[in-house]
Design goal:
By secondary structure, this protein is α/β, with parallel strands linked by helices. Helices cover about 45% and strands about 15% of the residues. It has eight helices and five strands; from the N terminus they run βαβαβααβαβααα. It binds zinc ion.
């Protein structure tokens, strides 16, 4: 384990919770940061809070309400329907610049806390058209953050090249499979654990889980 400090961008969902366990396994000191941007469901913030508390992780919740003011979308406005991007358009859950802002604020926090490592669960494999989830964007931002603050941050993206089944596998290897399955919130309708089963996030999570359970059963 590295005797260094890490900041995990943490939403209380499957991916970032798996990243939190990944970081706890690798770094001596881990801090979680959650962004409150008036998500459709306050349940998301509550879920993140509960997980951080249970794991004994220092947790910062930053108010990013301005994001909703700038870019109303399906994640923040309940009257906007959640749908996948079709015909090359971005999904209705896309918030332009969201990761750019989140990662930048995570960088500011990391600088203040004296943390060198920043961890995010962004993933290019299940790329649903979010440009700021791409590996090249994260690498570019890493350079920019270091230049902007004269820091030597290392941004880690443990899930970047994993599909959903492989993310479940990682949770299993980290010993947090049941925890992640029972306590995280991925669902756009605010239902914890296996979720509503109907929204795009639930479908993706469920498919990955089923694929992984098949692999596990075959071992
Ligand atoms: Zn759902």
């Amino acid at each position: 384990m590295k005797k260094e400090k890490a900041v995990v961008v943490f939403s209380g969902g499957q991916d970032s919770t798996t990243c939190l366990f990944w970081a706890l396994d690798k770094f001596e000191e881990v801090v979680a940061v959650t962004f409150d941007y008036n998500q459709r469901h306050a349940a998301e913030i509550e879920c993140a809070k509960a997980i951080a508390e249970e794991l004994g992780v220092e947790h910062h919740i930053l108010d990013m309400g301005l994001l909703n003011q700038l870019a109303p979308n399906a994640l923040t406005r309940s009257e906007i329907v959640v749908k996948d991007g079709t015909g090359g358009s971005l999904p209705s859950t896309f918030v332009p610049g969201r990761n750019l802002l989140f990662m930048s604020f995570a960088g500011v926090l990391a600088s203040q806390l004296g943390a060198k490592h920043i961890i995010t669960g962004v993933c290019e494999t299940d790329f649903s058209g979010y440009p700021d989830c791409r590996d090249i964007f994260v690498k570019s931002l890493n350079v920019t953050l270091n230049l902007s603050m004269d820091e030597q941050f290392v941004i880690h993206t443990p899930l970047m090249w994993l599909n959903k089944a492989e993310t479940w596998e990682m949770a299993d290897k980290l010993g947090c499979f049941s925890f992640v399955r029972k306590k995280t919130l991925t669902c756009y309708n605010g239902v914890v654990s296996d979720g509503c089963g109907e929204c795009p996030a639930c479908k993706l999570r469920k498919q990955g889980l089923e694929d992984y359970l098949k692999v596990r059963a075959a071992i």
